[in-house]
Amino acid sequence: MSEKCISIIWSNIESKKNMTRTILLSLSVGLFIVGVHQTFIHGFHESYFFFMICAVLLLVNRLLSAGDKLRKKEQDKNPEKKPGKRVKEPGKK
């Protein structure tokens, strides 16, 4: 593969990660709003489920972003191991 194809594929993967995080954040905000509304209508015990799902989505979003920061830090330490590039080992054809 040419380097142009690799960069296009890699940018597509990065944009999907950003889209996933955006969807998770939007869902958690929406569920929080629904939870607050249900709290006013039915009470907290009926809306507890919405708040817990909201918290789980926020935690997953946080874990994804922390993992990306960790991968970026490791790539900065080892610049020769960039994703999408293959390094030929000596002696292999």
Please explain how this structure is put together.
This protein has one domain. The chain is mainly α and 93 residues long. The protein is built from 2 helices and no strands. The protein is 80% helix and 0% strand. Helix 1 packs antiparallel against helix 2.
Question: What key phrases describe this protein's structure?
Answer:
93 residues; 0% strand; mainly alpha; single chain
Instruction: Compute the number of helices.
Output: 2
Low-confidence stretches: none
State which percent range the strand residues make up. Answer: under 5%
Largest sheet, in brief, is:
none
Which outline best applies?
elongated
**Alpha-beta content class:** mainly alpha
Brief overview, please?
This protein is an all-alpha fold and about 90 residues long.
Blueprint of the fold:
Blueprint: H1 3-42, H2 44-77
Helix pairs in contact: 1-2
